[in-house]
Amino acid sequence: MIIEICATTLNSIKNAQNAGADRIELCEEYLIGGVTPSIDFLDKSIKLSRIPINILIRPRGGNFHFNNNEIDKMFESINNFKKFNIKGFVIGFLDASNKLDPKILEEFRSQTSGYDLTFHRAFDYLVNQTKSLELLIENKFDRILCSGSKIDSENGLENLINLKEIANDKITIMPGGGINSKNFNLFKESGFQQIHLSGINKKISLDSDYNIIKEIIEMSK
Q1: Which superfamily, per CATH, for 2-220?
Q2: Which pTM value belongs to this model?
């Protein structure tokens, strides 16, 4: 099983890779759900990381209804980050009707050709998820990060299992949101091959916690 860690600090990257995680989703501003990292943070992260890094492309916190200027900013960020040794990108957006705009989707895939590509939890807000899933497959996205349209993945498990069956191995459904050592086995036993979590204990810090990640890594074997 592939364990992806959402990392917003250098300590998070260090703890994730030392604990045995497989991949980093790099972003900043954890408390608002993550935004596009700065070039400076990315540069330091790449120098530190021994595991692949996918970069979140999200120009601001809040909803996923991005205007044309924000979409342009996302494309600009992607092109700037191509200069670095990264694995891929994590993107997501909704149109005014909470649907996917096929033309914009196609352009994102074109701009990220050759890179790993994830559609993030904006998927949870789409009104026609089966059709959207098919569009993401057509555009050769690698995976969908979502919580089953619930507040967390445990509550959305039934929906996640249904999405995985619809996907039929043509695209990976990667549960994310509220995954921890107490509920991890629910996802393992349900046959999910990739899991996304931050591994943060907010009572201690906003760094991903080595012990939390290590425990989940051991459980995944």
Answers
A1: Copper homeostasis (CutC) domain (3.20.20.380)
A2: 0.97
